[in-house]
Amino acid sequence: MLDVTDLAKTYPPPQRGMMGDAALRGVSLSVAGHDAVFIIGSSGAGKSTLLRCLNRLVEPDRGSVRLDGEEITALGGRALREARRRMAMIFQEFNLVERLTVMENVLSGRLGYVSLWRAWRRRFPAADVEAAYRTLARVGLEGFENKRADALSGGQRQRVGIARALVQRPRILLVDEPTSSLDPRTSEAVLRLIVELAAEDGIPALINIHDVPLARLFARRVIGMREGVIVYDGPAEGLTPDALERIYGARSALAAT
Amino acid sequence: MTTAARAWRPPSIWPRPWIGPALWLGLVAFLAWNVLSLEINPARVARGLSRLGLVASKAFPPDFSRTGLLVSGLLESVEMATLSTLLGVLLGIPVAVLAARNVVPLPVYAGGRGIVMLVRTFHELIIAIVLVKAVGFGPLAGTLTLTLTSINSFSKLLAEAIETIDRGPIEAVRATGAGGGAVLLYAVLPQVLPRVIGLTIYQWDIHLRQSTIIGIVGAGGIGATLYNAFSRYDYDFALAILMVVVAIVLVGEAVSALARRWVQ
Amino acid sequence: MRATGRPRHWERFTPAQRAARFGAQLAVAALAAVMLARLGVRWDYVADSPAQVGDLLGRMFPPEWSFARAVVGPAIQTINIATVGTALAIALSLPVAVLAALNTTLNRATYAAARLVMVVSRSVDTLIWALVFIIVVGPGSLAGVLAVAVRSIGFVSKLLAEGIEEIDRGQVEAVVATGADRWRVLLYAIVPQVRPVFAGVAIYRWDINIRESTVLGLVGAGGIGFALNEAILGLEWRRVGLILVVVLGVVIVSEAGSAIVRKRLT
After folding, report:
1. Is pLDDT of C5 > 70?
2. Sign of CA pseudo-dihedral B243, B246, B250, B251
């Protein structure tokens, strides 16, 4: 359902005459079915750029991204926004609107579906509100709807982020390092939540993560990136020390796990 | 099992839910009352707008021929602004110290704050009128006025800066048995000195603007020339003066921005 | 043990630095002296001025309390002008601020245009705007309202634009990623972040405008300034005193009110 072909992106240099940053140098992958696919690699490998090129928060220089057959890179304006509604993103820094309540943050997933006036007055359709309540219960935040986002802990904020993404009823989840800002115990709980809920709803997920042991706990399929290209795409069991060295570039403690 | 869909409204920021809408209603009613009280005459407005073209044509092209008047007025404004800033800083530092809670005892603080408040209430034009009556027309009244109004911004901001300094050095100097003056010199002023420079530059900027209008009541500067041009319907000359005033203010802003960066 | 010898010497500045500091202070003093001379100051006037001011103030007090009734109308009109002018300015500042912020403006042209509007508005004092508007709509409170409004646009939109540029881009990115359009992103991700700045700036400017409105009447643009001017021309100092007291009262009340509202809103 998601087909990526030869995606490339070079960030322009800060000054003329310097080299640009080639974050992606020709990436191709396919996601079918309902799996959670974990993307690992050291920082700067291009994981975040890859995800952001899929929903065009970053504009790729070349390549094709097809979601359910529709070419995302060719879309403009309104069509792009509609496509984005079908791709929900979960962020490393949670990116909640701090001064709004949990409920408003969750419902922001449905902003594209209500008129401007109703968005201003916060009058969302009853079905959306009900879905929001149910999703909040599923992420374990029942009763939190009226709390301000900046009053929550990191783990709670990420759960709101997950709820916001699910309420969009997306075709695919793009998850960018969801646990990098969380402590180890919360990280495992949040990652488990993402994987379970995605599986329950039958939504495939692309999950960036740099914590390999954590990925191994949940992953079936793993993609390894290094310096802008994919160097491994296969089952989690295939992550031999050799494979890890290809991805991370040196024998390290990671290989021992 | 199906349950009725739950509804949700954003929580109110006020203690009671009806206070928010009531305040909005009150605000709208207040504004409506204000607008209606103003007694605006639509016929007069319509006539004025139709004359706009005529006025604009009288104003263009701007008349720069009376350069003597322009330059002398401008120079006077700039000199007033600069001199007032120097004097205002000299006056403003002690007043600021008197208005800082953490440096002076409570009754002195109350007095200092009182002075600041008193000066803040009155627009510089009002102060200018009083001073013109007292010391006569001309830039002396203007300089005195602007020096006094430094208390409004320079002293107020400096007092606030003093109130946020580190207590440590003050206690340390007091512990050596030093008197108030030494505490000021060694513990307070060094901490706020960078602020003083920035505030001085800011104050000069404000004074530059003010110096262009206090001439209207006879306190020197180009304001008088401008007012006369308007009352004699010399719109082209007025436009020339306006353009020069805008240019001065912009140059002043640029200079103060540069000076602030150079000081950093 | 240190060998005895000449006692060690410490000074804060090297001789060169001290010379430079002294030179700078001398230059400043010289500048001040030159300007003072050019002012054509009559030093006997200056020496006399405290006495003169004191005499004038003495003539203003006690204020002519019976005149208060005549002044109530103009005093209220002053508040009206400030309020309507500020409200108008706030409404007009919103689009200007959005276009004057690098992260929300549409293109270079709109950014430049918005910045130009801000600069022109800020460089001309309220009183001068009043003179301009009197030409167009005639003397009276409308000229005053327009002058207050036009001057305030530059102030409010500058601070608002700065507030918009300082927001957390991550929050905006998240709402964009849900597929919301420009207006919804503005409404949901930008407005909530800017709201405290907005409330503070609006009330701050209203406060300043109350002060500005007290003198609009001096040039004929409405408010209590007219009564003040008349009293001064007629040398009725006790009425002048009363008007000053009324101005003091109006400003104090408005400042107290605005402090309360500001505390609630931020």
Report:
1. no
2. positive
Give pLDDT tens digits for B70-106: 888 888 899 899 999 998 998 888 888 888 887 778 8
Residue B6 forms contact with A (CB below 8 Å): yes
Q: How far apart are CA A83 and CA A55, in angstroms?
A: 8
CB proximity C175 to A under 8 Å? yes
Q: Decide: A9 and A61 in contact? Cβ < 8 Å.
A: yes
Percent helix, strand, coil in chain A, to 5, is: 40, 25, 35
- Full residue range of the structural domain in which residue C130 is found: 69-265
∠ CA A230-A197-A141, rounded to 5°: 125
Beta carbons within 10 angstroms of residue B30's beta carbon: 13
Q: Domains of chain B (ranges plus CATH)?
A: 67-263 (1.10.3720.10)
Host H or E run for residue C99: helix C68-99
B135:C135 CB<8 A: no
In chain A, the residue whose alpha carbon lies closest to the alpha carbon of B9 is: A122
Among A158, A206, A199, A150, smallest CA distance to A179 is for: A158
The CATH code of the domain that includes C240 is: 1.10.3720.10
Helix, strand or coil, per DSSP, at residue A123: coil
The answer to the question of residue C25 being in a domain is no
Q: Return the residue of C nearest to A101 by Cα.
A: C192
Is residue B81 a contact partner of residue B204, using CB atoms and an 8 Å limit? yes
B120 with C123: Cβ contact below 8 A: no
The pair of three-digit structure tokens given for residue A146, joined into one six-digit string = 């009226």
Domain count, chain C: 1
Query: A91, A190 in Cβ contact below 8 A?
Result: no
Q: How many residues does chain C have?
A: 266
Choose the mutation target among B8, B12, B13, B24 for the interface with A, i.e. most A CBs under 10 Å.
Answer: B8
Q: What are the φ and ψ backbone dihedral angles of C174, each rounded to 5 degrees?
A: -65, -45
Tell me which of B50, B140, B208 to substitute to probe the interface with C (most C C-beta atoms closer than 10 Å): B140
Strand partners, A27: A7
pLDDT tens digits for range A112-138: 888 888 888 888 888 899 999 999 999
Render C61-86 in DSSP notation, one character per residue: -S--GGGHHHHHHHHHHHHHHHHHHH
C12 inside domain: no
Task: Verify whether the Cβ–Cβ distance A116 to C187 is below 8 Å.
Answer: yes
The pLDDT value given to residue A257 = 46
Which tokens sit at B32? Answer: 């409506």
Domains and CATH numbers, chain A: 1-86+174-194+204-257 (3.40.50.300), 93-169 (no CATH)
Which pTM value belongs to this model?
0.81
pLDDT tens-digit series, residues C70-117: 889 899 899 989 999 999 999 999 999 999 999 888 899 999 999 999
Q: What single DSSP character describes residue A230?
A: E
Q: Which residues in chain C are contacts of B135 at CB distance < 8 A?
A: 45-46, 48-49, 52-53
